[in-house]
Amino acid sequence: xxxxxxxxxxxxxxxxxxxxxxxxxxxxxxxxxxxxxxxxxxxxxxxxxxxxxxxxxxxxxxxxxxxxxxxxxxxxxxxxxxxxxxxxxxxxxxxxxxxxxxxxxxxxxxxxxxxxxxxxxxxxxxxxxxxxxxxxxxxx
Length: 140
Fold this sequence. Notes:
Elements: H1 4-31, E1 48-57, E2 62-72, E3 79-82, E4 94-97, H2 102-139
Antiparallel strand pairs: 1-2, 3-4
């Protein structure tokens, strides 16, 4: 028999794990938003991406959130800044900058934090329901 409260806990914990990893990836991108290459012509830091998928948990009859892929952003172009003093500057004094937009990363970080909190609340509610069920069984 499938236990709905156990299923809720499994779904919420997988969501918390996924959002935690999402926050780590966004934080890493923010930390490296200005990380240029060390020599002219080299590629600077490339924005990391994370993709999720539903993974069935047959024993509980539900699907959990799982990281399907960690990758890099191949679509967003690098920006170029004029900084002749930078070791990564080319002959014209231009430096290829990472393809990280800190505003996008901060929004992603905020969204991941809110999703994490929602999953945590779901976990707390499930624990409360389990507790109330035990109390009812004791009283009966």
